[in-house]
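Morning run. Coffee first, then this:
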Amino acid sequence: MKGATLFLSVGYSIKELPFEPPAGIQVAVENNTNIVVSGIDKELVGNTAARIRSVRPPEVYKGKGIRYAGEVVRRKAGKSGKKK
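And here it is:
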């Protein structure tokens, strides 16, 4: 966080992606990995959380990405080796 802007480092070539929350939404960062989105309007809070998650959604092979607290990502098996 720098001021009211959230900067996300999620592995893209751009080192940090800036995210400006809408008016009425507070964003806080806890222990460098947890992002807390709060506000009065429940729909706006959910939409903001979904926009943050859409920056890097969880992928099914390695499990990397931004996910909600308590969300379980079902992993897929990778490619199996060449069989003779």
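Helices lie at 42-53. Good start to the day.
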